[in-house]
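Dear colleague,

Thank you for sharing your sequence with our group. We've completed the structure prediction you requested, and as agreed, I am returning the results in plain text so they can be pasted directly into your records. Please verify that the sequence below matches your submission; if there's any discrepancy, let me know and we will rerun it promptly.
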Amino acid sequence: MQWITLMVLLFISSVEMLAQNRWKKQVSAGLFENCTGCVLCSEDNGCITCHHRLFLLIWRDGIRQYGMCVHTCPPGYFGVRGLEVNRCTKCRSPSCESCFSKDFCMKCKEKFYLHKGQCFRQCPPGTAAQPGTRECQETCEPGPWGEWSACTHEGRTCGCKWGLETRVREVLGAPREEGASCPALLETRKCRLRKHCPGEKTKPKNKGKKRQKKQKTEPDAGT
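Please find the predicted structure tokens below.
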């Protein structure tokens, strides 16, 4: 009788173990996609720890917190490597697309301009957006234009029909940033020169024509 009871208990125990193993396999299969790269994974909260080369990305959905292991952090986050776990940390500014640290942005989202690690709707005063980028850079403040120079051509002020004259202006205050964009500090324009320089001998143009006319008006010999 005891032997029969022992056999029944062993049978029941084996059935329960089979059921538990089947349930564990089903749970593992259901979590496989959400636990890729995880060392520890929770059914309710996703990844808890990741392999050493991956980053742990945690976000909130209402009161629920969920983790995921990623190779690179998504836009709006930056990666911080630690001794125990590498984490994706969110940039503080919501207008920042990628950041070097929590408070230093490297690239802003569309419709925002980057200046000194911060994102702005418009470039701050004294700065201008660089061509082809959405980065603001300090500009120079030029002074007034000087007087136009003498009209010259290859260093001469006469002896040619056209020349050039120039004028310049200076920067009032040196920009604080290296490579700051400055407006034009030199201008040139076309000017008219005196064709003949003072004291220069001019050759008569119509000398040959006068000789021809003179020859025509001389009477023929023997008439």
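Summary note from our side: The longest strand covers residues 55-61.

Kind regards,
the structure core
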